[in-house]
Amino acid sequence: MSRTLVLVRHGQSDWNLKNLFTGWKDPDLTEKGVEEAMDAGRRLKAAGLTFDIAFTSELSRAQRTLTLALDELGQPDLETIRHVALNERDYGDLSGLNKDDARAKWGEEQVHIWRRSYDVPPPGGESLKDTGARVWPYYIHDILPKVMNDGTVLVAAHGNSLRAMVMALDGLTGEEIVGQEIATGVPIVYRLNADTSVAEKTVLEG
């Protein structure tokens, strides 16, 4: 069965390691992140997957994750589309701040609301709902048609842009999706029915 969509969150970035809000800032992968990206490719290869097209964001940590994974898969020249719609959630005024420093400035409860609520954005930034508002149309109009045309499609992106896609695919509410963790470098494989609903979901964990 084709109609396969695979989601991969980028490997650990330098700012993930330093506990900073990243958003649209553009740090590179750590050594661990590089290994996670390569491991994602190895897991996809072991699962017998090859791809017709890939999508990623405009941010280098997702792009490099995709490149490393495709090298492991033996598909380094796969057609790839980069689009800002798949960028991470914009954390606005929190971007670049240490999460502990943000808690000291605004209070633990307020920072928790910004991080884990569905529709409350940080100052100058996006809520998860706002992120979804740019991800969902791109998914419906650009990614999903490639999948439904008997395609096998790889998306390498970010925790929150992928959360928005998982929310749509799994039929989750805003309250449910904020509690969903998407691990770095762990592929999530969806096989879709002819009506675009999910026939099967597999997480390729080690």
UniProtKB/TrEMBL annotation:
The protein's annotated catalytic reaction(s) are: (2R)-2-phosphoglycerate = (2R)-3-phosphoglycerate
Biological role stated in the UniProt entry? Catalyzes the interconversion of 2-phosphoglycerate and 3-phosphoglycerate.
The cross-references to PANTHER family, in alphabetical order and at most eight, read: PHOSPHOGLYCERATE MUTASE (PTHR11931)
According to UniProt, this protein's pathway is:
Carbohydrate degradation; glycolysis; pyruvate from D-glyceraldehyde 3-phosphate: step 3/5
Classification via InterPro entries:
His_Pase_superF_clade-1, His_PPase_superfam, PG/BPGM_mutase_AS, Phosphogly_mut1
Q: What is its EC number?
A: 5.4.2.11
What is this protein's name?
A: 2,3-bisphosphoglycerate-dependent phosphoglycerate mutase
Q: Which GO terms describe its biological process?
A: gluconeogenesis; glycolytic process
Q: Which domain of life is it from?
A: Bacteria
The UniProt subunit note reads as follows: Homodimer.
The UniProt annotation places substrate binding at 9-16, 22-23, 61, 88-91, 99, 115-116, 159-160
Q: Which SMART domains match?
A: PGAM
Fetch the Gene3D superfamilies from UniProt: Phosphoglycerate mutase-like
Q: Which organism is it from?
A: Aurantimonas manganoxydans (strain ATCC BAA-1229 / DSM 21871 / SI85-9A1)
Would you identify the family this protein belongs to, as annotated? Belongs to the phosphoglycerate mutase family. BPG-dependent PGAM subfamily.
